[in-house]
Amino acid sequence: MAEAIGRAGMECQRGADLESVFGDKASPRPEAVLLDLMTVASGQARLVVDQCKKLKVPVVTVVPSEGVGDYDTSLNADELIVHPASDGELLIRVKQAIYRVNGPTGPQILKAGDLAIDLERYDVTVAGRKVDLTYKEFQLLVLLASNPGRVYSRESLLTQVWEYDFLGGTRTVDVHVRRLRSKIETPGRLFIETVYLVGYRFKAPE
């Protein structure tokens, strides 16, 4: 499997347990964990998956073709590979697991915590869940998220997003911010702050 990972253009670090994978503080956290069920007992596998979920690290389980019928779906890994698999399938499934957990990445992506904004595809995801925004909501979010911490007055947002004195006035900004918040925020996950008597700002992740 390590050779297949190398052929697929990825680097891997072998570890018999989570401590060997995450214990070295000097090493960067892996983008994904490949869990070979041919060499790991079911109880240990469940512990690995549970811990990775807490750390928001994607888990890809590898199952031998003869053991597919016995696979326990309650293990709840992010992706599954049936061994043997082609190098191309291995690469795609690892990337798919990373996308599901962390959302899209790349030079055209704005990220703030688990919020990801794809500037090229006009897609927004929160914790891997796609969020449907109107074009103006998307423009408003991009402007705020591109300058975290900067306070924008309602008049400034109206001018920069709508580009003219909209008939509805600054109340239009408040309505769009409220709708935007309802789509991307949940209790304990706040992205847009109201600055009293001034306007709004994007909260940089801590």
CATH superfamily of the largest domain: Response regulator
Overall pLDDT confidence: 80
Q: What separation lies between the terminal Cα atoms?
A: 37 Å
| Helix and strand element order | HHEHEEHEEEEHEHHEE
Oligomer: single chain
Number of domains: 2
Q: Give the tally of β-strands.
A: 10
Task: Briefly note the structural class of the backbone.
Answer: alpha+beta
* Stretches with pLDDT under 50, minimum 5 residues: none
- Tell me the strand order in the biggest sheet: 4-5-6-7
As a whole number of angstroms, the C-alpha radius of gyration is 22 Å
> How many H/I helical runs?
7
Helix content: 25-40%
Which descriptor suits the 3D outline?
elongated
Strand content: 15-25%
In the CATH hierarchy, what is the class of the largest domain? Answer: Alpha Beta
Q: Look up the CATH topology of the largest domain.
A: Rossmann fold
Largest sheet: 4 strands, antiparallel
